[in-house]
Amino acid sequence: MSGFNDQISKDDLIRLRRELHRHPELALQEFQTAEMIERELDLAGIPHSRVGATGVLGVIFGEQSGNGVIALRADIDALPIQETNAVDYRSQTDGVMHACGHDAHTASLLGAAKLLSANRAHFGGEIRLIFQPAEETGKGAADFLEAGVLDGVERIFGLHSAPDLPLGTIGVTPGLNNAAVDQFRILVHGKAAHVSTPQQGTDALYAASHIVVAIQGLVTRRTSPVEPVILGVGKLHAGTTYNAVAEDAELEGTTRTISQEMRLQVRDWIDQTAQNVAALSGAKAQVFWTDVTSALINDPQASLEVGKVAAGLGPNIHIVTDRPLSLGGDNFAEFLRKVPGCYAYLGTSNPLRPETQNSLHNGSFDLDEDALVLGARLYAAYAKWWLTGGKQQ
Ligand code: NI
After folding, report:
1. How far is the CA of 298 from the centre of ligand 1 (A)?
2. Can you list the domains of the chain with their CATH numbers?
3. Distance, CA 330 to ligand 1 centroid (Å)?
4. Strands 55-61 and 48-51
5. pLDDT, tens digit (0-9, with 9 covering 90-100), for 11-35
6. pTM, full prediction
7. How many C-beta atoms lie closer than 10 Å to residue 3's C-beta?
């Protein structure tokens, strides 16, 4: 629509991203981060409210007639990872780092919010800005859903940094993008005894070892070889000393599945396997589950829309629609289960800067800040498109 000013300040985006990067906060502890977001929304005259302890919802109302509602989401939490980069904006908090690019997502959405707010005379309807905490632990989406933030929303859009894609490339894959993630904890109870009298005890360590092996067998013997499934045990603690039969053992692991049926099925199998295998040596097992996130499935129509809008952002923008499935999860998935929408992957790597090619969740991860402008423009452009006639197409 004529009159819409597309100018966005790269310096402002870099300033915001670096401020967030210097002061990372873990899931559900994003208090300073939330205050900083609120300060920036205040500067732009955007009303906002808290959702849960550290989530922030901003709302922009267009001044034209029209009644569309679109939600834009950025995640805001950091990770328990020690940064090893020597940059001057490195994390000031030992052992905590924005190693997943959420600082960039937050800065980009703030940039888009300022742009959209300054242009609110040129569109109608409503834009909801979701600054979501606790993506990494899978807990942050629930508060927004329970607060009804998605009520009446017609489209939702989010993006994530992608060091596997070069700057200027945007991944928009219709359908399945990320696996469902669950976490399990298995407690094995046996009976302590001196190592010289094993017949007087029940060896929880021995039972737990068999459980680890048996769980791996589920993937090769029970699941289809053409459907990706991961059953990973990442932690096993048992015993107290070298010459005793262990009374207790504790295992922790995660499952990655792509269909809801398999997600439920593997829970059942792991429950049965743990109990039955423990019983073979006279021990008992209890399994505890935590839902982390559903599979992330992009709406095909919304993906087409985002691809088209993204391609219109400039002649050098490259759109990929076949980025490989990731078995890492993202709880943007919970929003997509309620509202048609799209999660895009924003290329952040630059071959001239090797650190930008390091993987996410790596202590030496960094991103090329040129991506911030494209991220902000994409957030803004899709909202603008939806509210200025895209909805009717
Ligand atoms: Ni992330």
Report:
1. 17
2. 10-177+295-392 (3.40.630.10), 180-293 (3.30.70.360)
3. 7
4. antiparallel
5. 999 999 999 999 999 999 999 999 9
6. 0.91
7. 7
